[in-house]
Amino acid sequence: MVLQGYVKERFKEESWREIQAKCGLAETVDAKAEIDDNMVDKWIESAISTLGFPRDTFLMLVGEYYLEYAKRIGYGEVLRNLGANMLQFVENLDYLHTYIMSEYPKVNMPSFRCESDSVKDRMTVHYYSFRKGLHPLSIGILRAAAKSYFKSELQVQVISESMEYVEDGSAPRQHVVLSITVTQSAHIISNKTRNDLITQDIDRVLERLDEIKRNEGENAMPLMKRKTAGAKWKAVAKMSVLFGGFTPAYPASLSFDAVSFCNAFPYHIAFNSTMTVVHSGITVQKLMPGIRTQAAIVSDFFELLHPHSMDFQFANISKFINTPFVLKTKADKMMSNWGKKPMIILKGQMLFIPSHTVVVYLCSPFVRCLKDVEERAMFLGDIPIHDVTRDLLWMELMGRLRMDSNDPEVMRDEINKLSKQLADERRLNQKLRTCLLPRSVADQLLNSKPYEAGR
Q1: Which of 50, 181, 398, 411 is deepest in the core (most CB within 10 A)?
Q2: Of 61, 79, 85, 71, residue with least CA distance to 139
Q3: 235-238, long-range: CB within 8 Å, 24+ apart, which pairs?
Q4: Residue 323 in contact with residue 307, Cβ under 8 Å?
Q5: CATH topology of domain 53-157
Q6: Domain 258-366 maps to which CATH number in 3.30.450.260, 3.30.160.20, 3.40.50.280, 3.30.2420.10?
Q7: d(CA 317, CA 310)
Q8: What does the pLDDT look like over 298-333, one tens digit per residue?
Q9: What is the pLDDT of residue 381?
């Protein structure tokens, strides 16, 4: 228990015993036991009355300790690799939560969303949770992460707090908007340095544009010709800064037809602002034939598992565009012979296409082991070659083979197989010698006898 560890390490053993007595807590607490939210609130109230802290201050301190505790139990490397800066760290917290939820399905974790105009030293973060009043705990965790991983300090201001209702939620959801500023960070570039970079990039881009124009002609310019030269320089220089000095080249159109796209991404689903399915991958169509109709609504075919703190609506999806989405197929929409097999869970990313006002869900089956695949009567061939999930399943399969090799029966069969292969190789070797050498010479060599060369 994090709360228990914090009180015992930061204060005295007697303080924890007093908290136990106030809330009627057992002397020993099972760390794996499911704890009711009301009991958690009771612990917190008992702790702040015993220790004399304001509630928000106490939760922030516990949050800072929580990160230390997570590092102790092995999550340190995972947390350290969430991002290169604080913005990436916050944006990837939900991705980490999806994996934790796969191991602990009943856990109720918060969700985080950053505004699109957020940058690495200044961001607006939306916090969502069905557990009211625990956002100071998350603030403490973020502050500790900034110190530990980015050598920075966070200035956090609560802009607003509200309670919202989710359509299929049994309880209201708390929505807290946070303004976060990162200070004293070695990763922050001053305005003067940023302006110098832009000036240098403009000069470099000018030279490059002139070179392209001389060698390739006006049509080879990387931006649209109707823009002024000044706009071109500024736009390309800005891209150069964003991409670390690299200027990407985008084609005027993609050499990708609809058939190839649906085959390459067999589990994708594209839908418009009314949630109507525009197109989908071939495997999704096989599993759910009804999705091919023009009136198919994506929410009729899939249940939203994550983010669990939002309604499955187009406007909300656009807001959570940087969050991993987990969908589960609905039983009444599956193919007729699916039977009682478990539903397929898809995990992936929602991509908003502004030019068509369409969201494309690029995803793949969310499976943790070969058993998940076998229970759904699926095969490795059902997972695209480019999907890393296929490689992970292959690794597990090879691990099974290595484990099975310790079985005496399997080892005996393997030895017999190798012995047969050795006998076949010997017969082939004998035939080759007979074909290439005189019979008498071949017989002597086969019997390991020396042969004296003649004329």
Answers
A1: 50
A2: 61
A3: 236/201, 236/205, 236/209, 237/198, 237/201, 237/202, 237/205, 238/198
A4: yes
A5: H-NOX domain (3.90.1520)
A6: 3.30.450.260
A7: 9
A8: 999 999 988 876 788 898 887 787 788 999 999 999
A9: 83
